[in-house]
Structures are given as C-alpha cells and as structure tokens.
Specification:
Elements: E1 3-6, E2 13-14, E3 17-18, H1 22-31, E4 35-40, H2 47-56, E5 66-68, H3 69-80, E6 86-90, H4 93-101, E7 113-118, H5 126-137, E8 141-144, E9 150-153, E10 156-159, H6 161-172, E11 178-179, H7 185-196, E12 203-207, H8 210-219, E13 223-227, H9 234-239, E14 246-248
Parallel strand pairs: 1-4, 1-12, 4-5, 6-7, 7-8, 8-11, 12-13, 13-14
Antiparallel strand pairs: 2-3, 9-10
Helix pairs in contact: 3-4, 5-6
C-alpha cells in the first residue's frame, strides 16, 4: 500500500473544471488499496468546502482526507499560544472560521495581537497592511498560511497569499516569522505521520508547483511528482535548482508510476 498526496488547484482541477483523467486516476488508486489525501495551500475555503467541491466534481472525499493550510495554521497556533493570547487575521472568512473552530481567539485590535496570521485576502487594502504592520511594531509574530505567489485558474493565474506577504515584508524590511503550509515540515509531518500513518518513502507528493509541492516532497523524503497542468512549465523546470523525482503531463499518468 502506498500513500498519494494530491495538491488540488492545477493538479486535480482548474477553477471549477476537473482536469482530464483526474476522477479515473484517483478511483484506480483507491480501488487497488492505496491511500489518497488532498493537500492544499489555498486559504479561501474551509476543509468542508473542499470536500463538497470534490464530491460535486465526482471524486468521493471525506473530511479527514482533506488538509488545508488553514487547518495546519490553527493546529500550530493552538500548540503555541497561551489561553489569553489573540490573533489578528489578514484573510478571508474561511480562515477566521477554521481558527475559531480550533479555539483560537481573534482580535481586531493590533495592540492586543500576539500573532498576525496572513492568508490569501481578495479584499486586501491599506488599512489591513497597516494593522499588520502596527502589530509587528508591537512585537507580534507574523505567520502566513502559504507562500504561493499566484493561484492557477482556468485561463491563467491570479495573485495569492505571496502578494500579501510581500506587502508586509516591504513595510517591515524583514522576512515573516514562519509559513505553516507547503513546503513546511509541519505540514509534511502531519499529513504523512498523523493522516496517512506511513513512511515518507512509501508516499508520493503530486503537485504543479516546484517551490511548494516538489520542494516539500524532496525535503521530507517523499517521491515528488510534478504535473504540467498548473503553474510549472517544462521551461521553468529546466531553469530550476532542484528537480522532482517524476515529471508527468497530468494526473492521468500517476497510477502507472
């Protein structure tokens, strides 16, 4: 039995369109007894919303098969924070909801915030970056859900959480304190050890991004598989400083690896 960890956007689907062969490839893996989980950095939907989307696209999925960066961020903060401490969130409602569900106290007051959590925020503005900056001046630690500069969509790409990180780092002149989603060891260890309960060498990490999916796979001893249906092209791969174990045109080829 092997474990297959699938990125979502650019790997299983683009926007609301399933990538050709995705449903059949995942069904084949599951029919032969392999374990399948879905791992996404995207912070603008809850885990349950991803489950519902996958089901709507014809891919059976349960909540414990879906891990997103919001969930990992909440688990990290829960392990680090004292009961009276609070978090200032730059992000959308799904991020706030998943932090709240984990018992994380949220504040709108930058002077009260012990941490600032940055996620993808499509309503990002000057007021929000100023709040985060003032919290940083007040010694708050800055945590980001993910480093993705863009998100692949049908027809192109749009700015992702990396744009919010860049704005704050431009103001502070300092890198943020940590990133909890891919390619962090925190996320890799959770999905392999706690969810799949397998050895890393028995698992495949399949995704479309070199700097997140493939980097995490390589650094944690997973078999990294780059699909060419999302962000990364063969030209980008040729210029990269590291390589995946496998390169395939799409998810359709994964069962044959």
């Amino acid at each position: 039995m092997r474990g297959y960890i699938f990125d979502l956007d650019g790997t299983v689907y683009l926007g609301d369109e399933l990538i050709d062969g995705a449903k059949e490839a995942i069904a084949e893996l599951q029919s032969r007894g392999d374990q399948v989980v879905f791992l996404t950095n995207k912070s603008i939907a809850t885990r349950m919303q991803y489950v519902e989307k996958l089901r709507k696209l014809g891919i059976p999925a349960e909540l414990d098969q879906v891990i997103n960066s919001n969930f990992i961020t909440a688990k990290y903060l829960k392990s680090m924070m004292q009961e009276q401490e609070a978090v200032l969130v730059i992000g959308e409602k799904p991020l706030v909801d998943e932090l709240t569900e984990m018992g994380i106290q949220i504040t709108e007051n930058e002077k009260e915030a012990r941490y600032v959590v940055i996620g993808w925020d499509r309503q990002f503005n000057y007021e929000k970056i100023n709040k985060a900056y003032q919290a940083w001046l007040n010694k708050a630690k800055i945590i980001a859900t993910n480093p993705d500069r863009t998100c692949p969509v049908d027809g192109g790409e749009i700015p992702d959480c990396g744009a919010m990180i860049g704005a704050l780092e431009g103001a502070t002149g300092q890198p943020i304190d940590s990133i909890t989603g891919k390619p962090s060891r925190l996320m890799a260890e959770f999905v392999v050890t706690d969810v799949l309960m397998m050895n890393p060498s028995d698992c495949f990490m399949i995704g479309d991004r070199l700097e997140t999916d493939i980097k995490m796979g390589n650094e944690f001893g997973l078999k990294s598989v780059l699909v060419l249906t999302g962000i990364t092209t063969r030209e980008m791969l040729g210029a990269a400083s590291f390589s995946p174990a496998y390169v395939v045109d799409s998810i359709k080829q994964v069962p044959a690896l």
